[in-house]
Amino acid sequence: MRASLIVIFLTLVSLSYVGVRKKGEVTPKLAKPTSAASFAVPDLGQPSTPAKVDFGTQVRPILESRCQGCHFAGGKMYERLPFDRAETIKTLGEKLFTRIKDENDRRLIRDFLAQ
Questions:
Q1: Which end of the chain is more exposed for a tag (fewer CB within 10 A), N or C?
Q2: Which whole-number Å values give the CA distances from 90 to 45, 96, 107, in the listed order?
Q3: CA–CA separation, 1 vs 87, rounded Å?
Q4: Which of 55, 57, 50 has its CA nearest to residue 89?
Q5: At what angle do helices 60-71 and 103-114 cross, to 10 degrees?
Q6: pTM of the model
């Protein structure tokens, strides 16, 4: 009895995939079943924290290369906006990007601001 129920079930399942064909109609092929291993979720471990961005060694050199003439010692804007101080950069935020166009530099400064 149990075996006949299994046969009927499998027949119904296979008919639902194949469908009823008319004369001359081609039955579409089904994709091969995928093993359960291909659906495994990788172990990502602990979420990684972004590395801390250091103002003196990472951000300041970017600013020196683009803003040296005005915003560092001796420049005409140094008194109002000294770019050699991290506090100034945090206060200005992304307003710095008027002169900094490189996306990698912007990303680094954004990471610094987010700390």
A1: N
A2: 33, 10, 14
A3: 81
A4: 55
A5: 100
A6: 0.56
